[in-house]
Design goal:
Number of helices: 3
Helix content: under 10%
Distance between the termini: 36 Å
Largest sheet: 12 strands, antiparallel
CATH topology of the largest domain: AttH-like fold
CATH class of the largest domain: Mainly Beta
Strand content: over 45%
CATH superfamily of the largest domain: AttH-like domain
Shape: globular
Length: 352
């Protein structure tokens, strides 16, 4: 698997930090102690990084959201999501499909770019302990906390060519495991590389949140009214992930996971935190999103304000999908004044 990673990295002009000596050469120590632990149990890593078996109700995604800054201080949000599942190609003919949504939020310019969805009507390649995707101009190879991404975002207004190397700095976190949904995250991946904007190359660095969710999720999707999911990376090296999912029957699934700088994760149930939208954004006459949020967790003395860096960060695929993935800023208090960056996902507020 390492040879596959290295070939891809070489092709992109990037080098991975696999060994301790290489990690030190890249200016960063290899994670140790509790931050070097792997998941074992219902989710076992790195084995479960790989593509899972297709079933009639399976739905799987790999999700990278990067908060990046160029040498001149220019800020970007980069999103790359790869999906796979079965689809009906024609009446009575069901086959595997891969698709991806890739976006750039050029925060300094106040512009958001989504070029449209890319498709590949083939089964995802099965790679031991990892993944290898090539869908249109979106290419990802990696696993076990070491990833390389090459993507082109061109919506006809500007072209952004993104080449990134990601290295996990912390132990993976299990968010959900059991029933129809299995979900884990690498909550902080050191990220470096380049963004070429209409040919002008900027060197960037920052941090990425990676999420992988799989299982027979279509059974769950059929019960969903909407959900709000927020991933926060604070400047003190702690992370907070919040999910509030409302079901059609009026019930709710809600939790928050706080991971401190030493990789200890604490779960808060729905009675221990509050997520409140403070405003709205009307995307169209038939689509209104909540916009701006307050997160309060009294037991952890957390009070955070989350504000989208650009209001319009909508992903609309006519006839198929409509959801929101927004780069955001964070201010508030946690062990004193704090700040950071976040991504906000809003699903089914404007239909699936």
């Amino acid at each position: 698997m390492k040879s596959l990673h290295l070939l891809a990295a070489t092709a992109l002009g990037l080098t991975f930090c696999f060994s301790t000596s290489a990690a030190l050469a890249c200016g960063r120590d290899k994670p140790t102690g509790s931050c070097a632990k792997q998941l074992r149990g219902p989710i076992s890593l790195p084995a479960d990084d790989a593509v899972h078996v297709y079933t009639p109700a399976s739905f799987e995604w790999w999700y990278w959201t990067s908060h990046l800054e160029a040498e001149d201080g220019r800020k970007f949000g980069f999103l790359d999501i790869v999906y796979t599942g079965l689809y009906e190609a024609s009446p009575g003919m069901v086959g595997p499909l891969q698709w991806s949504d890739t976006t750039i939020s050029d925060v300094s310019e106040g512009k958001y770019h989504f070029p449209g969805r890319a498709y590949l009507p083939e089964p995802a390649i099965k790679v031991s302990n990892g993944y290898s995707f090539s869908i249109g101009e979106n290419n990802v190879v990696g696993g076990d906390g070491h990833d390389v991404i090459h993507a082109v975002v061109n919506d006809g207004l500007k072209e952004y060519v993104v080449d990134l190397k990601l290295e996990s700095e912390k132990a993976p976190v299990q968010h959900m495991a059991g029933g129809y949904i299995f979900d884990y995250a690498r909550t902080r991946m050191a990220t470096q590389g380049t963004i070429a904007i209409d040919g002008k190359v900027l060197h960037v660095h920052g941090s990425t949140y990676f999420d992988h969710e799989y299982g027979d999720q279509l059974y769950v999707m059929a019960t969903v009214k909407d959900w709000t999911w927020i991933s926060v990376q604070l400047d003190d090296d702690s992370e907070l992930v919040v999910l509030v999912l409302n079901r059609l029957d009026g019930t709710q699934m809600a939790w928050a996971d706080l991971t401190d700088e030493h990789c200890k994760t604490t779960r808060f149930d729905s009675s221990e935190f509050a997520l409140q939208a403070v405003g709205t954004w009307q995307q169209s006459s038939v689509c209104t999103y909540p916009m701006g949020w307050n997160i309060s967790i009294p037991r952890a003395a957390i009070n955070l304000n989350v504000k989208s860096s650009i209001v319009d960060q909508d992903i609309y695929v006519p006839g198929m999908d409509h959801y929101y993935e927004g780069e955001a800023t964070v201010t508030g208090s946690y062990r004193g004044p704090t700040s950071g960056r976040a991504v906000v996902e809003l699903t089914a507020f404007c239909g699936f």
